[in-house]
Specification:
The structure holds two protein chains of two kinds.
Chain A lengths: L2 H11 L1 H30 L10 E5 L3 H9 L9 E2 L1 H5 L4 E2 L5 E2 L4 E13 L2 E6 L15 E4 L7 E4 L1 H7 L6 E6 L10 E10 L9 E5 H12 L10 E2 L1 E6 L3 H12 L2 E5 H43 L2 H9 L4 H38 L17 H23 L3 H6 L2
Parallel strand pairs in A: 6-11, 8-10
Antiparallel strand pairs in A: 1-13, 1-14, 2-12, 3-4, 5-6, 5-9, 5-13, 7-10, 8-11, 9-10
Helix pairs in contact in A: 1-10, 2-8, 2-10, 2-11, 8-11, 10-11
Chain B lengths: L2 E9 L6 E10 L4 E5 L6 H9 L6 E6 L2 E2 L5 H11 E4 L11 H6 L6 H13 L15 H15 L3 E5 L7 H14 L4 E6 L10 E4 H6 L1
The chains are: A alpha+beta, B alpha/beta.
Chain lengths: 410, 213
């Protein structure tokens, strides 16, 4: 009888013990994998957050939501802010209470309005200010083509172009996206005039067109009787302030408008504090689970093999060599480890979407920050390593086994 | 293939006291020997010694041309597999395997092995129970499975340890019949304290005399 057949028979015939081992190990694999993937997902969010603007203006929604919506292209469809604010910020204003808003504190402003989606990618309306941002780390640069005009033209981010094989001159069809609970989307055909260079930010997965094009879409949806000038709203204003400028803008925006101004560094630090603790906790728990999984696998396997010492002595007496018995144990460990990994990975894959929906906006959308099943691979490797390690101990015992004493019951 | 034991000293596990000593024991090929003696004096140990499951503290065990002390563990396992068939006192069948699987267990993984196993089970009248787990078999049936395992192995030396210790007169006779039939043209060494089986053997050695000589 071959060692493999012996291992299979052993596993199949000792069903209860086999099933308990597989379930316990696969639960460890699934739990560890889930924690690790959540931690990675949470940590990856910071990698694509646009760097550059030090303030953002948007509808009152909470600092972190504003930060992530404007600079990481995630979250639900935001509320509007009056388009007039964009012009107001460029003027000096004296208020009745004597306070003054001085535009000298503002270095640069970029307007953004979300009006469509191309697949999972957002299409933003903006103006020439977007391309004239101060020399920030994530300033977008064209790889090919030219800036869009006011008509039905679009520039796509590097990921959008790569994933959809888009070239300059192609025409793409986006779907209008104009409200949080939109029911009917209408197609918008636009000609691609340029493709951005690949960077490290969420601009890679964003498309840009003109504010005029965005207004046209909004006006079409509002109704034919309305003039194109009727729609004048935005979602975000990305602001580069000068020293001391932030306080001046805050005076205007937070006290005298429906909008909210947030400090990007402050909100980033806040988000990092919140999720950083989660990430550290997640990684720590993952490693604890990994350690526990390894130990439980080893423990279960050692006790399983310990119960087979008599069987090993009989096999030795029947003429089985140590090498054959080692192969039998290794097969058994490998089959248990491999089956547990498959079951654990399947559970991980099945439970992960459910967990994401339960956690809601606490985590980025998988569209924004993908989390592949193979991120859990360290747990699979650790499990296979654990099951193999668990075999090493009985193998060592086997090498020192005194079959004569065992068979005599000494 | 003769078996020879010379100047054997086997100590108890504490290493200080001797369990038994044998100056010389020769078992010629083809003989049917019963080694008789009371329980607990080292008969099983003697069988294990002959099978090379351990080495004596002093002295030599030789099987044919092979001196156990000159062989490593791997070589002794190989010799056991090729030349020995052992019926253990507690039978030592693998509980979760069926009768057929227990018989085929030590055989090489070739198609003929399956045929040999089936034939052996037929010979001990267990063909109908071949797919029955050994735990579902009676003690007598389990004993016959152990004998079928030896029969299938085609061993030239058959060692049996107290094969009749837990069976009634009728079953004891059947077991010895099966063993004698199994070991035709082979060497058979049985250790037992059972007086009922003495008349069935060509050579009967008293363990106590053997170890005091």
């Amino acid at each position: 009888m071959t060692p493999l057949r012996l291992a299979l028979l052993d596993l199949i015939r000792k069903k209860t013990s086999t099933v308990i081992v597989i379930i316990s190990v696969s639960v460890c694999v699934a739990a560890g994998g889930l924690f690790l993937r959540l931690s990675i997902m949470s940590g990856t969010r910071f990698a694509t957050l646009v760097e550059g603007p030090n303030a953002v203006i948007g509808a009152k929604a909470g600092g972190i939501e504003l930060l992530l919506g404007s600079l990481n292209q995630e979250g639900p469809y935001p509320d509007f802010i009056p388009g007039g604010l964009y012009q107001t910020l460029k003027q000096r204003i004296q208020f009745d209470d004597g306070s003054v808003y001085d535009p000298a504190g503002v270095r640069h402003i970029v307007p953004l309005v979300i009006f469509a989606q191309f697949g999972k990618y957002r299409v933003l309306g903006t103006d020439q200010e977007f391309f004239m941002q101060p020399n920030a780390p994530d300033s977008p640069r064209l790889l090919r083509g030219e800036w869009f005009g006011p008509g039905e033209e679009i520039i796509v981010g590097s990921e959008v172009a790569r994933m959809n094989d888009i070239r300059v001159g192609d025409t793409l069809t986006a779907q209008s996206w104009t409200s949080r609970n939109q029911k009917n989307a209408s197609p918008i055909r636009m000609r691609v005039t340029g493709v951005f260079e690949a960077g490290n930010s969420s601009w890679n997965r964003t498309c840009f067109s003109s504010i005029a094009e965005a207004n046209r879409v909004f006006n079409n949806l509002i109704g034919p009787s309305t003039s194109t000038a009727a729609f004048d709203q935005l979602h975000y204003l990305l602001v580069y302030t000068r020293l001391g400028g932030f306080r001046s803008i805050a005076t205007l925006i937070n006290r005298r408008s429906v909008a909210e101004l947030i400090s990007v560094p402050e909100q980033k630090a806040h988000l990092e504090n919140l999720t950083g603790t989660g990430i550290r906790l997640g990684v720590s728990v993952s490693f604890l689970i990994l350690l526990l999984a390894g130990l439980s696998v080893t423990g279960v396997m050692v006790s399983r093999f310990d119960g087979m010492r008599m069987q090993m002595a009989v096999l030795k007496a029947l003429g089985f060599t140590s090498s054959e018995m080692s192969r039998w144990l290794l097969w058994e460990g490998t089959i248990l480890g491999f089956t547990s990994c498959i079951l654990g990975a399947t559970t991980d894959a099945a439970v992960f979407p459910l967990l994401l929906s339960l956690l809601g906006s606490a985590l980025p959308s998988p569209d924004v920050v993908p989390s592949h099943i193979y991120y859990s691979a360290p747990f699979w490797i650790a499990t296979l390593f654990g099951t193999t390690l668990a075999v090493i101990i009985p193998l060592f015992q086997l090498s020192r086994q005194d079959a004569h004493s065992l068979l005599k019951g000494l | 293939m003769d078996i020879s034991l010379t100047d054997i000293v086997v100590n108890l596990p504490d290493g200080r006291r001797s369990l038994f000593q044998i100056r010389e024991l020769k078992i010629p090929y083809g003989s049917r020997m019963l080694i008789h003696g009371p329980s607990g004096i080292g008969k099983t140990t003697l069988l294990h010694l002959i099978a090379g499951l351990f080495l004596p503290d002093k002295g030599d065990v030789t099987v044919g041309d092979s001196r156990m002390r000159d062989m490593n563990d791997f070589q002794r396992s190989g010799l056991r597999r090729k030349k020995f068939g052992i019926v253990f006192q507690r039978l030592n069948l693998i509980e979760h395997l069926n009768a057929y699987e227990n018989v085929v267990l030590p055989l090489p993984p070739v198609p003929e092995s399956a045929e040999r196993a089936v034939r052996s089970l037929d010979k001990v009248n267990l063909s109908k129970l071949r797919y029955e787990r050994v735990t579902n078999l009676s003690l007598g049936e389990q004993q016959r499975v152990a004998i079928a395992r030896v029969l299938a192995s085609n061993a030239s030396i058959v060692l049996a340890d107290e094969p009749t210790s837990s069976v009634d007169d009728k079953n004891a006779k059947d077991v010895i019949d099966a063993l004698l039939e199994t070991s035709e043209n082979k060497t058979l060494v049985v250790v037992s304290h059972d007086h009922r089986i003495r008349p069935r053997f060509d050579t009967v050695a008293d363990f106590e005399q053997l170890t005091s000589s």
